[in-house]
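2024-03-11 09:14:02 DEBUG pipeline.ingest accepted 1 chain
2024-03-11 09:14:02 DEBUG pipeline.ingest length=124
2024-03-11 09:14:03 DEBUG pipeline.predict start
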Amino acid sequence: MTCLTADDVRAIALSLPDTTEKLAWGQPTFRVGGKIFASLAADDTTMGVKCPVDERAELIVSEPEKFFVRAGHDDNYAWLRVRIAALEDAAELTAVLTDSWRQAAPRGIAVAHPELSPPPAEDG
């Protein structure tokens, strides 16, 4: 298990197409097309990413050491908190950030980067 840091989050987020970093609420946020897809917490140990509300509970139940929501803050938003050091490696961090990027990216930007499209769903 690799010990990932806020520097890893920044490097991977900024490697995604059309991504910029901007301070908001005193914290670094990462944006595509002006829309936030990730943010670092003030203590640099957690990050927030976009996640459909209907998928959050399953992630939190299956891996509570990695994923959580801030009660009262994230309840009504498609947002999930991630403990950076709990992620297995840079590949998992990249997958989390790329998924969030896809959700935030304006259609034109997303279409211009088919390499970042999600894998086809498996029939099962």
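2024-03-11 09:14:41 DEBUG pipeline.report The first strand starts at residue 19 and ends at 24.
2024-03-11 09:14:41 DEBUG pipeline.predict end
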